[in-house]
Write a structure and sequence with these properties.
The chain is built from twelve helices and nine strands. The protein is of the alpha+beta class. A hairpin with a 2-residue loop joins β4 and β5.
């Protein structure tokens, strides 16, 4: 335990801390588990201020957690928030997973995030702050890719011809959700924006708590569902280089859609019509981001080797192709639950 950590805990009223150790698998913030002499445990976290605006982030997190508490909804409980440090109560009896290994886990993910969106649907004004502006603005992601192509700072452009050709086949469709939101056909909602299984904690009774609220902000429910499709139905990790192993698993999509649609009664007609498309688009968008970072010299995503981001981009584009090949089947699944 460092002196800074001890001081933060004392300021939070925790004077009997006996151990502070690294916790979890996150790569953005520094997260620690705090043990105390009384047996009460806490999560101590230092926010990465190079990514997040401390003021906006604190405002959103406090508003979301306090609103959920006012409704009697189980959520993260903030003990103290003294930027850049914050302290949460440890969620005793809950556990999370890093990988979806069974269809029922995909169901749990869908159900948990549908409930999360539903619970926050009536959060009172003002509008939550945009923590990362244009986070799911796919046309803007393409603009950033085009800038990286023009600069080609690492001389990598010659090796990505096939990937860029694939991107071009999607350019006309890439703005669909943004355009539907601009027209008002798809409403802006409070969304999580990082809907992976390790951000869902579940207890023995099946009660789920959504954690990691840092990217909770206004957006489209479709991108939350689309990223669930991308992560919860994938047969391989997003950096698997053997593309024969990369595809979307039908039974996992069915479980995910069932869990999500059981709770997402707030969806309007346009959102329902684009659920399957959202999985394709969210996956495409992430592939574009990987390819952009590869051409820009790997400045955003952490890489383990020279072509890591290119491998990721190819992987995601292959996942898009798998989703497209199963589009009619997935549409039938969604329709059966609606």
């Amino acid at each position: 335990m460092t002196q800074e950590q001890k001081d933060i805990l004392l300021k939070a009223g925790i004077g009997d801390a006996t151990d502070v150790s690294r916790y979890g698998s996150g790569h953005i913030n520094e997260t620690y588990k705090v043990e105390t002499a009384s047996g009460t445990r806490y999560i101590l976290q230092r926010v990465n201020t190079s990514i997040f605006d401390e003021r906006l982030l604190k405002s959103n997190v406090m508003r979301v957690t306090e609103f959920l508490k006012s409704k009697g909804v189980k959520s993260l409980e903030v003990v103290a928030y003294d930027s850049p440090w914050r302290v949460y109560k440890f969620l005793e009896g809950y556990e999370s997973h890093d990988v979806v290994e069974e269809p029922h886990q995909a169901y749990d993910v869908g159900r948990a995030f549908a409930k999360f969106q539903n619970d926050l649907a009536d959060i009172p004004p003002p509008r939550l702050d945009d923590i990362i502006p244009k986070f799911h603005d796919t046309p803007d992601r393409l603009r950033q890719l085009d800038e990286a192509i023009a600069r080609d700072v690492k001389g990598r452009l010659a090796g990505v011809g096939q990937e860029l050709a694939f991107v071009d086949t999607w350019r006309e469709r890439a703005g669909r959700i943004v355009e539907l939101m601009a027209s008002g056909d798809i409403p802006e909602r409070v969304t999580h924006n990082d809907t992976k299984i390790n951000n869902v904690m579940i207890d023995a009774r099946g009660e789920a708590v959504v954690i990691d609220l840092d990217t909770t902000m206004p957006g489209s429910a479709l991108f939350d569902f689309g990223d669930m499709v991308r992560t919860a139905t994938a047969a391989a990790a997003e950096d698997e280089p053997d593309l024969s192993k990369v595809f979307s698993k039908r039974e996992y999509f069915e479980a995910l859609a069932r869990g999500y649609l059981e709770g997402a009664e707030f969806l309007n007609a346009a959102e329902r019509e684009n659920l399957v498309f959202s999985g394709m688009l969210a996956t495409f968008e992430v592939g574009v981001r990987f390819l952009t970072d590869y051409l820009a010299g790997d400045t955003y995503f952490h890489t383990a080797y020279a072509d890591h981001n290119l491998v990721r981009a190819r992987n995601q584009f292959q996942m898009v192709k798998s989703l497209v090949s199963q589009e009619s089947d997935y549409e039938a699944i969604v329709k059966s639950f609606l």
